[in-house]
Amino acid sequence: TYGWQAYYPLTDVYDWLRSLETIYEDRVSIINIGKSYEGRDILGVKISSKREGSKAIFLESGIHAREWITVATATYLINELLTSDNAGIRNISEHFDWYIVPSTNPDGYEYTHSTYRMWRKTRSPGDRCYGADPNRNWGIEWDNDLGSSSDECSETYRGKGKFSEPETKSLSEYLTNMKDELLVYLCFHSYSQVLMIPYGLKGMVADNEPALREIGDKAIEALKQRHNTQYEFGPIYEAIKYEASGGSMDWVKEELKVKYTFEWELRDKGRYGFLLPSTQIIPTADETIDSIVSILQDVQARE
Ligand code: 0X9
Ligand code: ZN
User: Fold this and answer.
1) Residue 36 belongs to some domain of the structure
2) Which one of 7, 157, 235, 278 is at 20 to 30 Å from 205 when CA atoms are compared?
3) Inside any domain, residue 4
4) Which domain holds residue 76?
């Protein structure tokens, strides 16, 4: 059985996702983005109230394997969208078509459960080391040395080429196919409690940065209301204080021209880091959802 008092391995997450299709057959369908390097399916759910002309939201989670809180928060969000009677959550659930993929790096996630808890990258073999950083592998400023590494043993190794990893290649193709309906792109990382907007390199500015800043400032205020958790907000390079190239959100913004793009670094600020106790899943997820509701209410008001 699945829940939010513990972290679960991939097969439990997938069994739970599949069960939703049976329970909520009118609203939920399983989506399959493609296969990982080791042949696992990259599964998610689409939640739709089937209203004519609804815009889509895509949530990418777990692209870094050890960031377990992102997988748990994504599944908690799915559950809330399907079961909550809170007016704000019901509104965003019904107003949009949701595409939620809790683990976009399933090989890595599985590896953190079976073998090495602190694994970050994919699991494709190189000559000396395994894996590329799937958040440096996208075709935007891909070979920029300021934001990624060409050393295959580095934690920020960009890979042999743009989209060399099957996980990023299939996800980018899936997103390209739905780009006309895609209004909002959200990604979850951990940790450090920051909410970010594009871009990861100095000097690159999102065309609608003022709007994204207004929405984001309000979102971290909304997040803080619940448990007094303090977030920083800003463009990636400003908020995380280093440069990052080849990231998914930047590519989605620049290449697919998605209007509203936000990326979270969830709890905490380093006390537990990636090893966030499972007792913090529900408080983390609740406050994160508060910020998502805030963002999407603002998006609806502007569209
Ligand atoms: O370095 C990263 O990839 C992210 N931080 S993490 O500790 N979760 O690894 C920040 C990524 C910044 N985002 C983009 N460049 N899109
Ligand atoms: Zn990350």
Assistant:
1) yes
2) 157
3) no
4) 10-302
**Residue minimizing CA distance to atom 11 of ligand 1:** 244
195 CB within 6 A, ligand 1: no
Which pLDDT score is estimated for 279?
A: 98
**Confidence (pTM):** 0.98
Q: Is residue 167 part of a domain?
A: yes
Residue 240 CB–ligand 1 contact under 6 Å? yes
As for how many domains the chain has, the answer is: 1
Rounded Cα–Cα distance for residues 40 and 122 (Å): 12
Task: Give me 273's structure tokens.
Answer: 């880091």
Counting ligands in written order, the one closest to the CA of 195 is 1
Tell me the CA–centroid distance for residue 189 and ligand 2, in Å: 4
State which of 135, 154, 196, 263 you would mutate to test the pocket of ligand 1, scoring each by most atoms of that ligand within 8 A of its C-beta: 135
Helix axes 10-23 and 106-114, enclosed angle (nearest 10)? 130
Residue range 81-104, pLDDT digits in tens: 999 999 999 999 999 999 999 999
Tokens at residue 188, please? 């979850």
Most ligand 1 atoms within 8 A of CB, residue of 187, 240, 252, 254 to mutate? 240
List strands edge to edge, sheet with 41-47: 28-35, 41-47, 97-101, 56-61, 182-190, 260-266, 194-197, 232-235
Backbone dihedral angles phi then psi of residue 21, each to the nearest 5 degrees:
-60, -35
What length does the chain have? Answer: 303
Position 257 in a domain: yes
